[in-house]
Every structure is written in C-alpha cells, then in structure tokens.
Write a structure and sequence with these properties.
This protein is an all-alpha fold and about 150 residues long. The protein has one domain: Four Helix Bundle (Hemerythrin (Met), subunit A) (Up-down Bundle), CATH 1.20.120. The protein has 5 helices and no strands.
C-alpha cells in the first residue's frame, strides 16, 4: 500500500502543483508582459508539454486510488475516500474537456494566427483550470480533515 500511496501522491503533486504554478505564477506574468501572439503561443507550448504529464498523473491517480479504495472496502470505504473519488473523477472529466475542446481550439487558433479565437479558448481554459485547481485543493483538504476526524474518533 505504501508504493501505491506514493504513486498516488506523486500524481497529485504533478497535476495540482502544475496547475498552481501555471495559474498563480505563470499566468499573471505572461498576461502582463506578453502581447497576445506571444502569450497564446507560449500557452499552447506550455500546455503541449504539461498535458501529457497530466494524462500520466490521471492514470496514476485513478489506478492507485481505485486500488487503495478496494483495500479500504470499496463502496464501504470511509466517506472522505469516497468524496475524494467523486472530486477526482469530476477533475478528470473537466481536464478531458479542456484537452479535447478548448485546448484543440487554442492550438488551431495559434496555428492560424487567429488571436481573438485563441484568446477566447485560453480564457475558457483559464476558467476551467481555476475550477480544477480549487477542486484539487479541496480534495487534499477533505482527505486530511477526513483522516484526522477518523483517527480522532
């Protein structure tokens, strides 16, 4: 179970940590110093490098999470674990939507130098990543508070 937990946490660190960096550090700087053509090209490149890591993290998180959930009793597992599963699945669905819809539009807009369409796609990605970052941080809090409450009882 220790190796499974390690893989799970590594996946979370890559995904949630990457979103935190992109949303809280890179986004504000890119918006303040780059013109739309450079900013949109930067983001298309950043996502092109980051999203394969997210897919790997999703596979690690889902596989290790389901394994640990089974060890905890499946659907009889503690409520915090089931809540983590629900939040994680929501995050994965949001990411899949980002990848297959607005990210595709961003790449096409940058390739065609359609900066208005690229800006719209990037705006949608930004909003959805903000939601996913919030869900990721909430999930981490749920796990720690849930485990603490379970141990305290």
């Amino acid at each position: 179970m220790n190796l499974t937990l390690l893989l799970h946490v590594l996946g979370v660190v890559v995904w949630v940590g990457g979103m935190f960096f992109a949303y809280m550090a890179l986004r504000p700087v890119a918006a303040s110093v780059l013109e739309p053509p450079q900013r949109l090209t930067l983001w298309a490149g950043v996502f092109g490098r980051f999203f394969p890591w997210v897919w790997a993290a999703v596979a690690l998180i889902l596989g290790s999470g389901l394994h640990m959930l089974a060890k905890l009793g499946g659907m009889e597992a503690p409520h915090y674990a089931l809540t983590m599963l629900a939040l994680g699945l929501a995050m994965m669905l949001i990411f899949a939507h980002v990848f297959f819809a607005p990210y595709g539009r961003l790449k096409r807009a940058v390739a065609g130098q359609d900066w208005k369409a690229g800006g719209a796609a990037l705006g949608q990605i930004r909003s959805l990543i903000g939601i996913n970052l919030s869900l990721g941080l909430l999930t981490i809090a749920v796990v720690f508070v849930g485990r603490w409450l379970l141990l305290a009882s």
